[in-house]
Amino acid sequence: MTQLIPQGQPGEHTLPDDLNQSHAGAAIAAKPVGGGVARRGFLQRTGTGAAALLLAGVTGKVLAAAPTPGDPNRVKLSLIQDPQTEQAESTPDPAAAPDQRVGYAIVGLGRLSLNQILPAMSQCKYSKVVALVSGDSDKARKVGRQYGVREDAIYDYHTYERMADNREVQVMYVVLPNGMHAEYTVRAAAIGKHVLCEKPMAVSSVECQRMIDACRKAQRFLMIAYRSQYEAMDRMIARRVKEKQLGPLREFIAGNSQNVGDPAQWRLNLALAGGGPLPDVGIYCLNAARFLSGEEPHEVIASVFRPADDPRFREVEQSVHFVLRFPSGWSATCMASYASHESRFFRLQGAQGWAEMNPAFGYNGLQMRKGTLVEGKNATIDITIDPENQFAREIDHMSLCVARNQTPHTPGEEGLQDQRIVEAIYESARSGRAVRIAQPPGPTRGPDPDEETF
Ligand code: NAD
């Protein structure tokens, strides 16, 4: 017998088999209950037609099915421009109504939450903020008033577990210093909540494994917020690589740097940060080398620099350089610094072309270029596309995964593999030797995010 994994609290809200169809007629993936939801590979994709999003609410009833291409609910307008020659004009599907959206608790009200995540919620189609967690109750109440969060849905780090009784909260979004991610993920899973956790996943691979195990045991999803993996130009490049448009890969070159200020900030505290620029900004270079190529490195050689006379770098490195080698013969040369003017870029070179982003990794203003042979001439082509809110894309992806009972594209295994490589980089820098990196025991990513849902 199969049944759908419940969307709200564990052990509740099972959808009966006769609701196991969207109104568009697309089957929703069903699976035998028993395995943890985070277990790799067991979740079936619902298929493109089953973009047929079922938003099952906390009552367990099917509240709505979002329109999909070919769906009678899709908003149709007559075309003005020729879709053969112009960008396909698409009228966005209507967003889900507030009572049909997946509810989030934002855990930690620092810069990222206040400046990016909460504002992005207004651009989400399937997600809403329903609770806040902060050690500063005045700040939380003010922010709550701004975003329509009820006073009784404001928690602190001691009352965190009370959210077990708040059935509106389906996902806890952990936006705390890196050294706190593991504790607050494990505690969220223990009260039956799904977790979206900021990068880097944690400060050690032991912690990462603990987070995966806790979510698996609780049958809750764990997604790591690798924003760039949901960004349209990055995804375009990954597709070009997959389609072999660049030819065999040869080199990847990437940098991510910024000047840090206050020496007392947690980013310069080893226990809270897990390292310096490597886990904070260098991880974008490392993760991009992996997801753009779809390959896993098998060796790294690295060095770090820590000046003796700069009070910012008493505990963590000022800069890191590392070269990852990949089994098919190409290499990724990456650097990250906390003492250079803001600079974020990458170029991926293949035998038949290259693709680059400069700036890369940022929240906005991204630019892409490609180099290729055009009519026998070396040509450079600039590509600019309509900007999209990356945070809204990744948060909505998590909501769709919860609604569809589908493994996120960037689950805990993706964060764990990055953390293993971070540890190999530090080991190489310490020993001065190349360090072997074990291939992950299985795939580290879930199904690609749907492009058409955004
Ligand atoms: P921040 O310092 O601005 O905010 C951290 C929050 O944690 C604050 O509200 C702070 O009060 C709270 N906190 C609770 N206990 C704390 C403690 N013991 N020490 C310090 N702060 C404590 O940090 P941020 O820039 O918002 O980063 C938060 C997380 O988001 C980090 O994991 C970071 O790597 C990640 N991040 C991701 C992106 C991205 O683009 N995805 C960008 C920036 C930061």
Textual characterization of the structure:
This protein is an alpha/beta fold and 454 residues long. It folds into three domains: 1-97, no CATH class; 101-225, NAD(P)-binding Rossmann-like Domain (Rossmann fold, 3-Layer(aba) Sandwich), CATH 3.40.50; 245-388 and 413-453, Dihydrodipicolinate Reductase, domain 2 (2-Layer Sandwich). It is 25% helix and 21% strand. The chain has helices spanning 111-121, 137-147, 181-190, 205-217, 232-242, 270-273, 277-293, 390-404, 412-431, and strands spanning 54-56, 62-65, 102-107, 127-133, 154-155, 171-174, 194-198, 222-225, 249-257, 299-305, 319-325, 331-337, 343-350, 353-357, 368-374, 377-383, 435-436. Strands 16-15-14-13-9-12-11-10-17 form a nine-stranded mixed beta sheet. Strands 5-4-3-6-7-8 form a six-stranded parallel beta sheet, sandwiched between helices. Helix 1 (111-121) packs across helix 8 (390-404) and helix 7 (277-293) packs across helix 9. The chain starts with 53 loop residues before the first strand and ends in an 18-residue tail after the last strand. Residues 1-67 have low confidence and may be disordered. The structure holds nicotinamide-adenine-dinucleotide (NAD). Residues 108-113, 135, 175-178, 198-199, 225, 227, 266, 272, 280 line the site of nicotinamide-adenine-dinucleotide (NAD). Nicotinamide-adenine-dinucleotide (NAD) is lined by residues 108-113, 135, 175-178, 198-199, 225, 227, 266, 272, 280.
